[in-house]
Amino acid sequence: xxxxxxxxxxxxxxxxxxxxxxxxxxxxxxxxxxxxxxxxxxxxxxxxxxxxxxxxxxxxxxxxxxxxxxxxxxxxxxxxxxxxxxxxxxxxxxxxxxxxxxxxxxxxxxxxxxxxxxxxxxxxxxxxxxxxxxxxxxxxxxxxxxxxxxxxxxxxxxxxxxxxxxxxxxxxxxxxxxxxxxxxxxxxxxxxxxxxxxxxxxxxxxxxxxxxxxxxxxxxxxxxxxxxxxxxxxxxxxxxxxxxxxxxxxxxxxxxxxxxxxxxxxxxxxxxxxxxxxxxxxxxxxxxxxxxxxxxxxxxxxxxxxxxxxxxxxxxxxxxxxxxxxxxxx
Length: 330
Prior knowledge:
alpha+beta, Beta-Lactamase, Arc Repressor Mutant, subunit A, 2 domains, 6-stranded mixed sheet, two-stranded antiparallel ribbon, 11 helices, 42% helix, 16% strand
């Protein structure tokens, strides 16, 4: 199934038709039930730091195309169109146009490490996500309560869901007060239905990429097979583009090319889960020296805390391998 910007996607579901014109809440002056209800609630709860619970957040404007020439002949049409866009702003407009054309408002894209059978988010592309819900979701660690993540470590089959499904599954979990808070906040976000699936990482055996297309439509019945097929095509095309053809600008020209050998060693220790004391002992450094280099590395990767630095180091290691493969192919 091929989906390109030149083709007319599957027609909008009945709840979205208005004199034959596709209308999205994002284009109607905001989302009732989302900005109107969630933002005042979050204003009372959010700390001023803007921290996202250790998850590394980035946007389309942080991405750079690989320097190596692209072999576009065998790529899906939509991937070629993404590669052909002259700027990140044009790319964003293309993806949003296709997303809205299918009846969805938001696309969530991120990586998650698999630890003891559970998905732990590491990084997240914010550009297409819900602008209010995203940071709140990670800050509150709602992924620990979100039943959509339960099958992510073991299955790549798509899950078609609505809020009633989430509520039914969440109520069966321990920690009912936190589950109720998750459900209340999720309901206030304006998100009501969607498609959720994950893809195994070829470079990181204990990591998966999570892709979720979301809508304000109240029930999942509108996501018929034709819509599901095009949603998967869009999600997988975005995944192919992001995972194979771009890298974050902080990693340009080889993700860790500007780091010293000592800083690389410290990053490897961090990935291995070693404490500052263990790093100092292994590398024969003082605790002051380790602390100094960790501060330098946090600035280098534009992160705020140790968890984010570990996630950035893991992604840098994976990006290094991709960069090296691209250089060989060139």
